[in-house]
Amino acid sequence: MVDNGDEMMIDIAINSLFDAIGKDYASWRARGEYGSENDYGDMVDSLHIEEGRKYLKVVKQFGTQELVWGFIQKKDDKQFRAGDILKAASWAAPARNKARGNILDGDFSWVRWTGPEYL
After folding, report:
1. pLDDT tens-digit profile of 34-54?
2. Residue 115 and residue 57: Cα distance in Å, rounded?
3. Taking the model in full, what pTM does it have?
C-alpha cells in the first residue's frame, strides 16, 4: 500500500486523472453528432481503480466489458517513481519501457480517454 502521507495525494491525483480522461472523452464526442452533455459524467463514472501489489490498475467499464486504461506505479523502484503512468501490455501487466507521465506532477496534457499517449 502507498504510505499514509502519500495516499491522500495519490487519491487527489487519481481524481484529477479521472477528470482529465472525462474531459478528453467529452471533447472527442463533441466533435461528432453523437455528443451529449452526459459524456463527461458517463466516462468518469465508468472508471475505477484495482489495487495490486506494485501498481494501481485504471479500468474502464463499458457495459459488461472492462478495459485497462493504464497502470500507476505505487512506489519508487529502480526504473520508475511513484505516480508514473504506464501503458498496459496486457490485462495484468504494464509496459515497462517508459513512463507516459506522472499523476503527481499535475500535468495531464498526455492523457487521452483511450489511454496514455504512445511514445
Report:
1. 788 899 999 999 999 999 999
2. 12
3. 0.88
